[in-house]
Amino acid sequence: MARVLVVEDDQFVRSALIRHLADASHTVRSVGTALEALREVAHFSFDVVILDLGLPDLDGSEALKMLRGITDVPVIIATARDDETEIVRLLNDGADDYLTKPFSVEHLSARMAAVLRRARTAVGEAPPSTVIRVGGLAIDPLRREAELDGARLDLTRREFDLLAFLAGRPGVVVPRKELLAEVWQQSYGDDQTIDVHLSWLRRKLGETAARPRYLHTLRGVGVKLEPPRAEQPMTGSPGAEPPL
């Protein structure tokens, strides 16, 4: 069964979708605004997003572009708009499918099954990949999976890309400009974008900027990823200064 995010501000439609999806044994989370949707996909992993366009804080077409900036999760647009030009534009902007309201639950189920089938087939067709290992981290770039000490990490698209890029260069300080170019595909940008994603990634790795284990920031230079340093045992008599 799938993990589904419903983004719908109409409470009646939202409740009906949640009830139907839950009855079909899917795990459902729901929000009513675009900003809430962005927060959800930044912190949780979903198999599919059902996105309404008429949201109160931001038009769904803009929300779609922002979602595509942080995740490659399949998105099904569900809206009353039926203009063909707009449908084509949304599909070109990254939507995986489009449903015009009103639609039946059977129609939604069929579209979801098709989208999920395509996504899973694409993963299944990927060739075997070389797993990158740095300390307790194991990162599979093709399957887009990462583990820390054997436990699966629930990462967003950008978090995974950032982690994989740094892990492929263990111990190397990577300039922020290079991170923007390689991970975000931007020639320029705000350093805060990198800082926010580093903060989210550190949280999932069980560390902080003040007490780093894997991710180390060199102020004014860049970022590097390296295995945690083993703690050095104390030697000498009690009360003595530790050796240099």
TrEMBL record:
SUPFAM superfamilies per record: CheY-like
Positions of transmembrane segments: none
InterPro entries per UniProt: CheY-like_superfamily, OmpR/PhoB-type_DNA-bd, Sig_transdc_resp-reg_receiver, WalR-like, WH-like_DNA-bd_sf
Entries under Gene3D superfamilies matching the protein: 3.40.50.2300, 6.10.250.690, Winged helix-like DNA-binding domain superfamily/Winged helix DNA-binding domain
Pfam families, per database record: Response_reg, Trans_reg_C
OmpR/PhoB-type domain: residues covered: 129-227
Residue ranges of DNA binding: 129-227
Modified residues (4-aspartylphosphate): D52
Keywords linked to the UniProt accession: DNA-binding, Phosphoprotein, Transcription, Transcription regulation, Two-component regulatory system
GO cellular-component term (any): protein-DNA complex
Region of interest (Disordered), ranges: 225-244
Name of the protein described by the UniProt record: Response regulator transcription factor
